[in-house]
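Single Protein Entry

Contents — chain, fold
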Amino acid sequence: MKLTGLDLLTNPRFNKGTAFTLQEREDYGLTGLLPPVVSTQEQQMQRSLLNLRNKTRHIDKYLFLTALQKRNERVFYRILLENIEEMMPLVYTPTVGQACQEFAINFRETHGCYISWQDRGNIANALGNWPEKDVRLIVVSDGERILGLGDLGSNGMGIPIGKLTLYCACAGIDPAHCLPIMVDLGTENEALRTDPFYLGVREGRIRGEDYDAFMAEFCQAVQDVFPQALLQFEDFATPNAIALLERYRNKQLCFNDDIQGTASVALAGLLAATRINGKRISDMRFMFLGAGSAATGIGELLVKAMQREGISETQARSQLVFNDSKGLIVRSRDQLTDHARPFAADLPAMDAAAALEAFKPDVLIGASGRPGIITESMVKALCAIHQRPAIFALSNPTANAECTAKQAYEWSDGKAIFASGSPFSAVEYKGTTFIPGQGNNAYIFPGLGLGVLLSGATRINDDMLISAAECLAACVEQTQIDAGCLYPPLTDIREVSAKIAVSVAKTAEKAGYLPAPLALDFADHVRAQQYDPKY
């Protein structure tokens, strides 16, 4: 159906606004509906950027960009592409955290699908109401573990929306193929349940067998309605995140970015760090602060990467220890979660500070969501053991980082190899400029998704995640390594994503996951298929 008139001007995918030419205005019934001057897309961008930069609060900038996305999708994505370092913190971490907290009060119009308990038995029909029928990429959350903010219920819809925005901007996946979904099965957040503006289910969360049955119906409905779609689980609480991944990873095309994407981007940073400390991954010892799904996900991928360097699984696991709120996770504990049990240390119970002294790790990885948990005394203890220790403070948003870049460099007297999950500015210390690398999952999941979708891969395995990490680490220039930065600049992220897509697809081909061999010019095909927002 040909869109004309106001229907065209209110469709963000096809609307060009004042950039419609005079002839297009005549052809599409737009004459008289727009000011007489024809703008270029460049002029539209500059006008939008001027309005955006006149706003002082990040949340207001987020809302402005969201409105632009719903008005003129191509201008929105071109602004992101050409100003990615400025825009990334606005459309995702850290601003998206506040956007989720205020999602209901700022709600203007729908963006995605909402599937709730009342839709059980009818989920496929509900998904079928989505107007785009060629959906290739779905990000779904139940809102229970949003960043470091906890249970935000249906307000967590900001996360799937933001993730898909990054897929489009960072990898060039066509927005028409993307669908954000909120599975709303209640919330334990009493403040939300009593908030008159909250738009989600105002009851406690569905649990146990009912939850499992609902998610089984949902996953089957995705396969039935959108058979070509990659399903990404996002911000589920640890028990559900792990259970869903284990239950469906070998049944349909899916992955969990919090577990697998975080693991891959962390591994990439650690591989890059070996160019500074001169050690192999399998030569190092790793201590984690935090033992949730993200932490143990990194651990599991590290074990496999270490095995590829020639050591046994048993030896690899012995080189990793984990701490939670009770201290070091040890075998003698009465209760151990299934995902932490394989990493329980054969050591006496002790707190994290004592564990650091006893275990003498090369790398300290914070994945706890607890700000300040990496202390000055810990950093100094690391430096007393190793010449160039690595410190990864991975928790989001910025306020939840286990330590800041400035603290890591100053406490270590410039010796620390530092990376974080949230952005930190460059640090000047004793005449040296350190550029902290941000281990942002956006370096991994967009390229991973692009490679999977363009190759037709039917599954995602650990080897594909390792190949993505190796490719990302190889993209870091030596000048960046010399400045202590373990990740490439965000300005290179489209090209990085294209390279990761090729690497992932080749690994999937080796695993037998492709319906047909890759074309010899697959790398050219990837770049040719990347979404271009220009008119």
